[in-house]
TrEMBL record:
It is an enzyme of class 5 (isomerase). PROSITE patterns: HELICASE_ATP_BIND_1, HELICASE_CTER. GO terms for molecular function: 3'-5' DNA helicase activity; ATP binding; DNA binding; four-way junction helicase activity; hydrolase activity; metal ion binding. Residues 26-194 form the Helicase ATP-binding domain. The keyword Metal-binding applies. Pfam families: DEAD, Helicase_C, RecQ_Zn_bind. Belongs to the helicase family. RecQ subfamily. The lineage of its organism: Bacteria, Pseudomonadati, Bacteroidota, Sphingobacteriia, Sphingobacteriales. This is ATP-dependent DNA helicase RecQ. Residues 218-364 form the Helicase C-terminal domain. GO terms for biological process: DNA recombination; DNA repair. It comes from Sphingobacterium puteale. Keywords: ATP-binding, DNA-binding, Helicase, Hydrolase, Isomerase, Metal-binding, Nucleotide-binding. One of its GO terms (cellular component) is replisome.
Amino acid sequence: MTLDSISILRQYWGFESFRPLQEEIIQSVISGRDTLALLPTGGGKSICFQVPALMMEGICIVVTPLIALMKDQVAHLRKNGIQAVAIYSGMKKREVDITLDNCVYGKIKFLYLSPERLYSDLVRERIRFMNVNLFAIDEAHCISQWGYDFRPPYLELIKLKELHAKVPFLALTATATERVITDIQQKLNFPKENVFVKSFLRDNLAYMAIEEEDKMGRMVRIIHKLGGSGIVYVRNRRETQEIARILINNGIASDYYHAGLSGQERDQKQDAWMTNAIRVIVATNAFGMGIDKPDVRFVIHLDLPDSLEAYYQEAGRAGRDGKKAYPVILYQENDKKKLVDTLQASFPDISFIQQTYHYLCNHFQVPYGAGEGLTLDFDVVTFAKKYQLPLIPVMNAMKFLERDGWLTLSEAVTIPSRFKFEIDSTELYKIQVQYAKYDKLIKAILRTYGGIFENYILINEYEFANKLGIPYGRVVELLKSLEALEIASYLPSTDSPQLTFLQNRVDYKHLYIDHIFIRDRHRVKEEEVNGMIDYIEKAHCRSQSLLLYFGEKNAGFCQVCDLCLIRLHKENQRTQIKEEIKNSLLKAPKRLHDLVESLTLGTEKRRIEIIRDLLDAEVIRLEENLYSWNTLF
């Protein structure tokens, strides 16, 4: 590895050395080889593409479905003096156009894209003219239908190779089974296998899965005992508030988090937890992706996750500082039935999917033969209630509609307000003279931001309201008025998921849905659910069970999970009971009843079990109903 990579690492990230496998992955990328890297959650995946991209001329294109992570990384790169931009659902066409121009003609080093953007001819055509040095594919398991989080837009990734055939792919993921590892490379047309895998072992994590009738009481006791900060995962939004209230009532500083909150509320709650103003965040699985908090001491699941892949990622948010941490599942027998019931609800029949499409078009008043490219704010809960449809089947119907190219749905994300002047400074001055009511606001904008004639700038309306001493609503009114006069473009903030129709509306009775794919996907999800239930019921060691699931066949017992601790306790108790039996029989031979009564450790059943084992091993003898110790042992 050249000194360049170390100096870049030191200059921008302040690290003196790479983590395991990072150097090898970077060298593979620099050599121009398509590369798949599997690094556990918190293993430093972003360094693997950011460092080589800075070593080479040109721009790195990063594809990720995690818009919150995308925004966070762009902000971090800019803070370090590296030019980076992002394009994601919710941005207007002109805004996207300017950003792409800057990537073609400017000095941008990183362009982050949501996978849905690859459906756009505009985006693909502009990428053709960029000097691309690397395609980095985050969450690469999403390209495989065998993966736990398959996302149809990922199938568009191969078109990037049509634009720049010699530019390597670096595919990155934290979780993938052997089948998914093979599938990722096939879908991305790797010329030959090239995989770097860091062990999935997290030896500082003491995994536990406890059957418990009183989940709330056990959860509170665990949190009090462990101390530190943590996450409690639940399945629905209502539960987040209820559980947070229970924790607060038990003296534990807590808050709740789910996708239904406004962007500002989500940011405030996340910041409070990150800075330890609160100890525990109770959340749906909308929380956690891309968050790197090192001192999480526990992650508690009160509902069974849908798959071991999802569980490994969520549990892996604990103990990133390398210190002991506890991922805990608290479950009841009925939870397994709920998991199976959810599986069945996740696969609606073809007629339900077609009907959902019909209602979606009616909901947005899309006429037949129109709608292609239409992007709209979308609240799936409101939609389901309006048409009295069950929520889980609706959400999954939309996934299948996405798979077959009818629409695409982005995650909920807060997009701040954006603003850009559409006239030059000379014309703007004339407007200030002609329309006095805009003068103070225009001056305030010009003093606060540079480059606002060339690019869209993120603005805060509340900030201008405070500066000018006028109500927030008046600032918004003036900004909208400037847009109406075509003096500026103003894009108000939004935090809704974005639904995009990819084709013109058709009669839902003729809507093509790939039933073969649905059948195969059902089989995959069934295997995942069974894997989760086996983890609860049949594992001999929690960590070993996870490692075996991900293809690490020589995994030993971790000695720290609940099952290992129970086994070690039994083994220690067995040794102690055996010693008691020896001492008792060396004093005098005894009948079974008297021997069992002479012992102090273990249950009667456990004592008899060990006596029988010792008898089978001829460590003790039985003659005329009397047990005696074999002095050869």
